[in-house]
Amino acid sequence: MELNDKITLSLPCKAEYVSVARLTASGIAYRMGFDIDTVEDIKVAVSEVCSRLINVSRNNSGEYEIFYEINDNKLKVTFSSKIERAGCIFEDDEEGLGVAIIKAFMDEVEFCPDNKDYILSMTKYIEEKS
Amino acid sequence: MSGELIVRAECSEKNAEIFVSGEIDIYNAQQFKEKIYQAVENSKGDVSIDCSGLNYLDSTGLGVFVGALKKAKQDDRNIHIVNIKDNIKKLFVITGLDKLFIIH
Fold first, then answer.
1. Which domains, from first to last, does chain A contain?
2. I want to staple A57 with a disulfide (CB 3.0 to 4.6 A). Which of A13, A92, B17, B20 is the partner?
3. Which chain A residue has its CA at the smallest distance from B66's CA?
């Protein structure tokens, strides 16, 4: 049967909990069998999005969700939030360091989806071992 | 906890050496910024940042490094990054910042 597990993490928009997001991301990525370098890449990419969300949230209020979809060949990470300014969170920072890092570390990234149910999704494929 | 940020600075009139360990992210980047900016101000020479204990860095921390470099460059001084781990160095390379800092 094809693997299709889902894990959801809900966090307050506060800087002190971004490390929790990283721990969860690395735990899931490690469990999926990504090598240690890729686990670190995924951690950083997730943290970049969390940090950006916290920066755009007013008074650090509100929450955001990180939704992990675990398949046989890939990990898809989706972010959603109802905070007022969520929208397209990298809209005015396309040339920024955060965007460069996310694009380098993840295989696919959807920055400003038309679907307003989420604000960003990114995917990392598991490399086939030869 | 291995994530806790510890920043220790040894400054002389000639140069400054900063030792960083732990993780730098949005939560503690301000703490790192205050220490590194102070070291740049207190030194007349180049600043060396020993990153042998640095386990995590992202764009928030990179921004602090860049800000410190700008301060140093005002007086024609450099920032040297030493003993950097491969996963941290990768961030400098991806963002092109490896061309601005002197990485040993």
1. 4-125 (3.30.565.10)
2. A13
3. A97
pTM of the model: 0.92
A113-120 — which CB contacts under 8 Å span 24+ positions? A117/A80, A118/A67, A118/A78, A118/A79, A118/A80, A119/A53, A119/A79, A119/A80, A119/A81, A119/A86, A119/A87, A119/A88, A119/A89, A120/A49, A120/A78, A120/A79, A120/A89, A120/A90
Q: How many residues does chain A have?
A: 130
| Closest-CA distance of chain A to residue B57, Å | 8
pLDDT tens track for B48-87:
999 999 999 999 999 999 999 999 999 999 999 999 999 9
